[in-house]
Fold this protein.
Amino acid sequence: MRRKGTVLMLGVAFGVSACDGSEPAPALEADVEVDVVRLSEAEERVAGIRTEVAVRGITRRVVEVPGSVQPPDTAQAVIGSIVDGRVVAVRVLPGDSVRAGQPLVEIHTHELSDAQSDLAAARAQLSYREEAFGRSEELLAAGAVSLEEVQSRRAALEAARAEVLRSEEMVEHLDPSPDGNATVVATRDGTVFAVHARMGQAVLPGTPLVEMGRTDLLWVTAFVPEQTASTLQPGDSVVVRFGTVDEVIDARLVRTGNFVDPSNRSVEMRFELARVPVGVRPGSFAVVEVTAAEAMEGVELEEEAAVRLADRDVVFVRRRAGEYRAVNVEVVVLREGRIAVIGLPEGAEVVVEGAYFLKSALEHTREAAEAAEAAEAEGAGAARVP
């Protein structure tokens, strides 16, 4: 049943003035029973009311998955020691850009001394074998030695040459510094991520010294919920946001795990960024936006269109000029700034800006109506007292 006196005048309560600011604006009215708010033209301008026509369609919620930025696994490298020795110089710091072949760490080792001694001995042996072979050829021409002797000395010469090559490669592999230390160099162009080597540290072959990798090509690793992961295939596109830059970057799925992590029911996935924005580095935090598998029929709107009224979600629908009705809806968050509402008729003129003004007007009017009703009841009770 419709209450009496539910339409109230509240223009002054919201501090709305006329266009010239000298007179109060026309009154604001609300019908409490049917959740209707009525505004004058001046009040609509102050409220900044903007509407959109509701178009129902199939929408999908966007799942936001946290991730971490890293170089591709195949573009990372852990540079280890190749000798047994002691670190005497560290040439780089984390964050440095390096080129292939650039010195990273110097190690004092007896292996370099041994390799240089072996090279000197191999060269001396080669010189001896060259002279011996030359003499054998002269003697063969004079008939003083057999052909077999010449061939034997030729074989010994080739073995000496091979030994020199081996010794030279070993010394080159150790890359002697001007101070006579073995030098560990960068295996590729890239950025230094971590330096484990410390001055005076004793190392063995394989001891990790420096971690490095590419930064011009980056991946985002994220653990995608199992149900959503089932809809993604390598090559599918997603978008990625970052906490350090105000940009949204396209990415594509390049690697997907073949098992579900039982601890959180998710699948590890790697997405390659189409472009690396300025300010994004390995280790940066990222959010991958993945479209969920489940679909729903509803109206997609801006987030500000829906407001909480008491214990329900509502949107305001324009019925006619200056008249707006609160309609109960179910709200589903799709992604940042966008929602889907279920329960809204097709073609409804929905308020997408100014909904909070209408909510305040409706709540204020309801409170005033309840206060007036209470005062009326109190007055009626006093009149019955003898």
User: Anything to note?
Assistant: The first strand starts at residue 29 and ends at 31. The domain at 63-73+215-294 is CATH 2.40.30.170 (Elongation Factor Tu (Ef-tu); domain 3). Helices lie at 41-47, 110-142, 147-174, 226-229, 355-384.
